[in-house]
Automatic annotation (TrEMBL):
Binds 1 Fe(2+) ion per subunit. Its EC number is 2.3.1.234. It catalyses: L-threonylcarbamoyladenylate + adenosine(37) in tRNA = N(6)-L-threonylcarbamoyladenosine(37) in tRNA + AMP + H(+). It comes from the Bacteria. GO terms for molecular function: iron ion binding; tRNA N(6)-L-threonylcarbamoyladenine synthase activity. InterPro entries: ATPase_NBD, Gcp-like_dom, KAE1/TsaD, Peptidase_M22_CS, TsaD. Keywords: Acyltransferase, Cytoplasm, Iron, Metal-binding, Transferase, tRNA processing. Required for the formation of a threonylcarbamoyl group on adenosine at position 37 (t(6)A37) in tRNAs that read codons beginning with adenine. Is involved in the transfer of the threonylcarbamoyl moiety of threonylcarbamoyl-AMP (TC-AMP) to the N6 group of A37, together with TsaE and TsaB. TsaD likely plays a direct catalytic role in this reaction. This is tRNA N6-adenosine threonylcarbamoyltransferase. Its cofactor is Fe(2+). It is an enzyme of class 2 (transferase). Residues 26-311 form the Gcp-like domain.
Length: 336
């Protein structure tokens, strides 16, 4: 057929997702089975549990994705899959499913980097123009990425310790917020005020690296100290103060990056891109300092892990004929 149809798989962490994406721009289906409830009582993702869930979910998600898109294997152009970074046991389920289906149906297999997927979620908002800068903020990563062309990635800033989402999840635990805490802490922050003046890490340095462990420690110490002297702190104000410090750092470093790499598009991607305060702060900063730069943020249902974004990134890899064979393996520490 004339349509380019990619069946995409994503299973790098705790979401099993299968999508059908047309021409890299149109989502025909995007099935997402989340396992959050199974991990919540442990306060984080348990790799063994995650892997088992992926095995149980992936066949049904695949059937649903094809059904909802109204296509069969005979209509497909290629099969794409996240092969890293992520949890090895989780990645392997998607990789094995994709390999098996690709070879059973004689379809090319496209390996996709999960972080590239997060960036290409923005393709569903508008065509991407290069060079672009991406701020990718998730539970596992916090990176500034320059793309000089489609499918070309250069990391110019990275976290030295925790990822931004990870910091949200860790301080969320101290506040008694269930995993993953980001969304709830974001809501609490909007109901509170920045009264605690938490440290703004590396604010003066001109490099582009992030650090959240100092902020996390300051937060935990503040709460523990109050506990010890029997003082009750306002949880919303704590959340607001934490969020203000995170946003200050993310926006500050992004502005330094933009001064070094002027671009027409800034992509905000990854699970933390759902943060309303972050989006608003970036928009305001761009309006002030880089009015020529447009902020692209995927809709909330595409900022978290999903297979549609993998299909969008795979479209670029397909154009470059970047295929894998049956030896494709999961690469948990995959970099660009
Ligand atoms: O990209 P993602 O779904 O998974 C990874 O690849 O890690 O990101 C999940 C992370 C979690 O740490 C979650 O707490 C955070 O994104 N998150 C948020 C918000 N929504 C999700 N963090 C801050 N504000 C939010 N609204
Ligand atoms: Zn992710």
């Amino acid at each position: 057929s004339q349509r380019e149809l990619i069946l995409a798989f994503e299973s790098s962490c705790d979401e099993t997702s299968v999508a059908v994406v047309q021409d890299g721009t149109q989502i025909l289906s995007n099935i997402i089975a989340t396992q959050i409830h199974s991990h919540q009582r442990f306060g984080g993702v348990v790799p063994e549990v995650a892997s088992r869930h992926h095995v149980e979910q992936i066949t049904e998600c695949t059937d649903l994705a094809l059904q909802e898109a109204g296509v069969t294997y005979a209509d497909l152009t290629a099969v794409a899959v996240t092969y890293g970074p992520g949890l090895v046991g989780s990645l392997l389920i998607g990789v094995t499913a994709a390999k098996t289906l690709a070879f059973a149906h004689g379809l090319p297999l496209i390996p996709v980097n999960h972080m590239a997927g997060h960036i290409y979620a923005a393709r569903f908002v508008a065509p991407l123009t290069y060079p672009l800068l991406a701020l990718v903020v998730s539970g596992g990563h916090t990176e500034l990425v320059v793309m000089r062309a489609a499918g070309e990635y250069e990391i110019i800033g990275d976290t030295r310790d925790d990822a931004a989402g990870e910091a949200y999840d860790k301080i969320g635990r101290v506040l008694g917020v269930p995993y993953p805490a980001g969304k709830t802490v974001d809501e609490m922050a909007h109901a509170g005020h920045d009264t605690f003046d938490f440290p703004r890490a590396m604010h003066d340095s001109d490099d582009l690296d992030f650090s959240f462990s100092g902020l996390k420690s300051a937060f935990i110490n503040t709460v523990h100290h109050a506990d010890q002297i029997g003082e009750t702190l306002d949880r919303n104000d704590l959340a607001a103060s934490f969020q203000a410090a995170v946003i200050d750092q993310l926006v500050g470093k992004t502005l330094i990056a933009l001064r070094q790499h002027p671009v027409a598009q800034l992509v905000l991607a990854g699970g933390v891109a759902a943060n309303r305060g972050l989006k608003a702060a970036l928009e305001a900063a761009l309006a002030r300092e880089f009015p020529e730069t447009t902020l692209l943020v995927p809709p909330v249902r595409l900022t978290g892990d999903n297979a549609a974004m993998i299909g969008a990134a795979a479209h670029i890899e397909l154009a470059h004929q970047h295929f894998a064979d049956a030896t494709l393996n999961a690469v948990p520490g995959l970099n660009f």
